[in-house]
Amino acid sequence: MKHPPLLQAKNLKYSFNETGTSTHVLNDVSIELFPGEITSIVGPSGCGKSTLLYLLGLLDRPDSGEISLNEKDVLKCDDKKRTILRNHKLGFVFQFHFLIKELSVLDNVALPMRKAGKSKTASYEKARDVLGKLGLLDKSNRFPHKLSGGEQQRVAIARAIINSPSLILADEPTGNLDTENSKKVHSVLSKLAIEENISVLIVTHNLELAQSCDRVIKMRDGRIIE
């Protein structure tokens, strides 16, 4: 029996205005994401993939539509509540890892817990645990520039999951990686989905990566086509 959706979005519409002209980016997009499942979204550049991910990640608001997380309407939440939800329920991984170069790997991964008010001891303990799961514990005291591209992206994934999110949103997470490291990143995300019962949504141009996911959603011209 399938679990109810972790996240459900219905009839999302979004447009932006530039020099007095309104451009429709999303048109009546609906999507469901389930725990323990890794889903990919593919489509040509400009079709609305990343915009949809940002809306689902509560980084922006749609013009209309509904978004619920654990069956709770998140669009009615004020900005403070949305920030709390992002910090505790969502993890983000981007094409560029955005690691802080002045901080060690351990400090980079522990940072979200520290920002959430957890103690240094608890944050470091959890960071070491997460790094161990991703095969990076021996890199804890290194700085990002001393790591390979694949290792840096795995550190970014560690940082994304340290607060035990229900959903990971990944925007072109293998965009700067070679084939071998792309496979490693996908393997890490798949393992997390299964073992931690996390829902993972990947926006990608990498068709091989997309097809290795549990479900592939195709977009074109601001709509889901299948």
Backbone shape = globular
How far do the termini sit from each other?
23 Å
CATH hierarchy: architecture? 3-Layer(aba) Sandwich
The succession of helices and strands, N to C, reads EEEHEEHEHHHEHEHEE
Question: Number of helix segments?
Answer: 7
Low confidence ranges: none
* Widest sheet, order of strands: 6-7-8-3-9-10
Write the layout of secondary structure elements.
Elements: E1 7-18, E2 21-33, E3 38-42, H1 49-56, E4 64-69, E5 72-73, H2 79-89, E6 90-94, H3 105-115, H4 120-133, H5 149-161, E7 167-171, H6 179-195, E8 199-203, H7 207-211, E9 215-220, E10 223-224
Parallel strand pairs: 3-8, 3-9, 6-7, 7-8
Antiparallel strand pairs: 1-2, 1-4, 4-5, 9-10
What does this entry look like structurally?
The protein is of the alpha/beta class. It has a single domain, classed as 3-Layer(aba) Sandwich (Rossmann fold), CATH 3.40.50.300. The chain is 35% helix and 27% strand. It contains seven helices and ten strands. It has helices at 49-56, 79-89, 105-115, 120-133, 149-161, 179-195, 207-211, and strands at residues 7-18, 21-33, 38-42, 64-69, 72-73, 90-94, 167-171, 199-203, 215-220, 223-224. The strands form two sheets. A six-stranded mixed β-sheet has the order 6-7-8-3-9-10, with helices on both faces. A four-stranded antiparallel β-sheet has the order 2-1-4-5, covered by helices on one side. Strand 9 and strand 10 form a beta hairpin. Helix 3 packs across helix 4 (120-133) and helix 3 runs parallel beside helix 5. It is globular and about 50 Å long. The mean pLDDT is 87.
